[in-house]
């Protein structure tokens, strides 16, 4: 039993406090996105009366903008800094999710989805860049492993939300 305990203690890395704060933010954000994103299509269809195929296209628009913004975010961060770029992405996401209740027409849904996707793609990309910047090289592998666990917590929530939506 002593060798198992020694082995487990050897796995503990002493990461900077900022890494834990950043990872806690990732968990909270992933939880929020995992709880909200599966229901956007249902909300747009059931509450706002947007046809299901069009609501699905809105969700695809969000994903497309997230992909493009993730590609652009790096060059923006080179000019503005990873932290400022990440904060911009978080603000964009927060504003977008705050605007969903105000949607009345499909064109509004597309605009809000574009904003949400842009914000999400930006903050997630910058979260990795910021993590690399604040973590010493010797323990960076542990910080990125921890990041994947934190993101998977949000993905697990996403899959749970999808299952609830599909059963409904």
Task: Summarize the topology.
Layout: H1 2-10, H2 17-47, H3 52-80, H4 82-99, H5 106-134, H6 140-167
Helix pairs in contact: 2-3, 2-5, 2-6, 3-4, 3-5, 4-5
Tell me what the structure shows.
Helix content is 86%, strand content 0%. The mean pLDDT is 84. The chain has one domain: Growth Hormone, Chain: A (Up-down Bundle), CATH 1.20.1250. It is mainly α. It has helices at 2-10, 17-47, 52-80, 82-99, 106-134, 140-167. The protein is built from 6 helices and no strands. The termini are far apart.
Looking at this protein, list some descriptive labels.
86% helix; elongated; 168 residues; Growth Hormone, Chain: A; mainly alpha
Structural class: mainly alpha
- Gross morphology: elongated
Any idea of the CATH class? Mainly Alpha
Beta-strand segment tally = 0
Mean pLDDT over all positions: 84
Catalogue the unreliable spans. Answer: none
In summary, what is this structure?
The chain is mostly helical. It has helices at 2-10, 17-47, 52-80, 82-99, 106-134, 140-167. It has a single domain, classed as Growth Hormone, Chain: A (Up-down Bundle).
């Amino acid at each position: 039993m002593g060798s198992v305990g020694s082995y487990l203690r050897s796995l503990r890395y002493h990461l900077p406090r900022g890494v834990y704060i950043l990872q806690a933010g990732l968990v909270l954000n992933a939880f929020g996105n995992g709880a909200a994103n599966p229901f956007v299509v249902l909300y747009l269809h059931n509450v706002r009366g947007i046809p299901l195929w069009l609501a699905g296209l809105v969700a695809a628009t969000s994903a497309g903008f997230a992909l493009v913004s993730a590609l652009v975010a790096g060059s923006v961060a080179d000019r503005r800094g990873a932290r400022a770029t990440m904060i911009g992405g978080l603000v964009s996401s927060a504003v977008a999710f705050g605007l969903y209740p105000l949607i009345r027409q499909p064109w509004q849904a597309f605009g809000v989805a574009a904003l949400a996707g842009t914000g999400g793609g930006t903050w997630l990309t910058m979260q990795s860049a910021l993590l690399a910047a604040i973590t010493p090289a010797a323990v960076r592998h542990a910080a990125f492993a921890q990041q994947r666990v934190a993101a998977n917590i949000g993905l697990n929530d996403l899959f749970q939300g999808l299952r609830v939506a599909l059963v409904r």
